[in-house]
Amino acid sequence: MSNKILIFIFILFSYSCQSKANDQEEANKLQAKADSAAVFCKQKGFNTDFCILIDMKIHSGKNRLFVWDFDKKAVTLSGLCCHGVGGKSTGAQPVFSNTSGSNCTSLGKYKIGARAYSNWGINVHYKMHGLESSNNNAFKRIVVLHAHTPVPENEIYPFHLPLGWSLGCPVVANKTMTSLDALLKEVKKPVLLWIYY
Hints:
Elements: H1 3-44, E1 50-55, E2 65-69, E3 74-79, E4 108-117, E5 124-130, E6 144-147, E7 171-172, H2 174-184, E8 191-196
Parallel strand pairs: 1-8, 6-7
Antiparallel strand pairs: 1-2, 2-3, 4-5, 4-8, 5-6
């Protein structure tokens, strides 16, 4: 076997090992956030059936929005999620801001509010109320959870999602939004949506 073939095999093996390590790190982080979210929801009187977790550190071409079922202690829905175009964000690196007009995603915990009409995607959006100093301008900035038709339904990794589909909102595929809408329409208590990095 030639040296070039051996080097190629070694690179593939190294990439595979690194990818598995990253996946495990993401899974551990998700579990830790879910455990913290469960405590928060009980303390604050939020819905304790499920929450929505969005890890903006995950590659934008991979699923990074997760519906976490507290009873099953598992993800029951996942999907792609765009980040805001502002603040010199790139597909690979989001920039975060709570400033009006920044067109950036804001990190932190949100209470999902009223269901309303959207001009985008499946024509449904949900208001978002920021609960922390890092996102307390969300409602004023009209940051909402909504779909946009061009967002793919499946992962596109190693490619990133194009910028420009979000001005700070968590924007998802139509199919994902349809599933989220079905869940959110049925709840009696506020649902936690947590965007973190």
